[in-house]
């Protein structure tokens, strides 16, 4: 088996449980702003948010919207779906959400165990499209920060995954060549294709058994399987 000198990890949905954490954060905001006045069923409200958020993150990844649009538009769209047209409320929700959501600490199963053990064998780096101020908070609050040598955010690199630019930035930060690193992530486009285009091997974390459309060097359905590879 090939020997690597550095492991690059995606954060959201690979280590940090986005769905659970964002749902718990939105529940706090739903209660704080008494959104039940407009949408009695929280799950409906969350569904509207989740749909808008997913689409806007794809647009942010592709450079179609900036971070401010992403932060506010997802709440403008959620509010519009429940019959509320209030840009100031959307802005307040967006600001509160960015402060609140990163403080929740639900992790993907085995995340802490795996990065703790692997950090004793390899230098670990996070490579993420997430906002710098939130990603550092997430890592520190959930106890993973101490295991990583560095965190590479798209804002610092000047490009989002899957651009080779951010991967090149990460390799320089780690002081390794493309053939000495491997990227571990859940997203076939941003993590796997992005790594491949940068000449980096990859591990596709595929917990839901999705059909593979993009070739990865390795594939795992649980993070614990990484300990058998590395």
List keywords for this structure.
230 residues; alpha/beta; Rossmann fold; DNA polymerase, domain 1; 2 domains; six-stranded parallel beta sheet; 10 helices; 6 strands; elongated; HAD-like_sf
Textual characterization of the structure:
This protein folds into 2 domains: 6-16 and 107-229, HAD superfamily/HAD-like (Rossmann fold); 18-103, DNA polymerase, domain 1 (Orthogonal Bundle). Helix content is 49%, strand content 11%. The protein contains 10 helices and 6 strands, in the order βαααααβαβααβαββα. The protein has helices at residues 18-32, 42-61, 67-81, 87-100, 111-119, 132-141, 154-157, 164-174, 188-197, 226-229, and strands at 6-9, 124-128, 150-153, 181-185, 201-205, 218-220. The protein has a 6-stranded parallel sheet with strand order 3-2-1-4-5-6, sandwiched between helices. Helix 2 (42-61) packs antiparallel against helix 3 and helix 3 packs across helix 4 (87-100). It is elongated.
């Amino acid at each position: 088996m090939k020997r690597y000198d550095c492991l690059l990890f995606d954060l959201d949905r690979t280590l940090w449980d986005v769905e659970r954490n964002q749902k718990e954060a939105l529940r706090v905001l739903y209660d704080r702003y008494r959104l039940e006045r407009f949408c009695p069923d929280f799950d409906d409200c969350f569904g509207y948010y989740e749909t808008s958020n997913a689409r806007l993150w794809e647009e942010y990844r592709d450079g179609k919207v900036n971070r401010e649009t992403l932060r506010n538009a997802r709440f403008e769209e959620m509010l519009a779906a429940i019959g509320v047209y209030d840009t100031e409320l959307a802005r307040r929700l967006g600001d509160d959400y960015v402060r609140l959501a990163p403080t929740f600490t639900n992790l993907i199963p085995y995340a802490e165990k795996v990065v703790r053990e692997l950090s004793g064998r390899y230098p670990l780096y996070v490579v993420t499209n997430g906002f710098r101020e939130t990603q550092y908070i997430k890592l520190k609050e959930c106890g993973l920060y101490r295991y990583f040598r560095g965190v590479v955010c798209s804002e610092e690199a000047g490009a989002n995954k899957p651009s080779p630019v951010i991967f090149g930035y990460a390799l320089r930060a780690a002081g390794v060549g493309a053939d000495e690193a491997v990227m571990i992530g859940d997203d076939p486009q941003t993590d796997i294709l992005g790594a491949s285009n940068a000449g980096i091997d990859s591990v596709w974390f595929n917990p839901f058994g999705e059909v593979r459309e993009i070739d990865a060097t390795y594939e795992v359905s649980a993070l614990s399987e990484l300990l058998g590879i590395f």
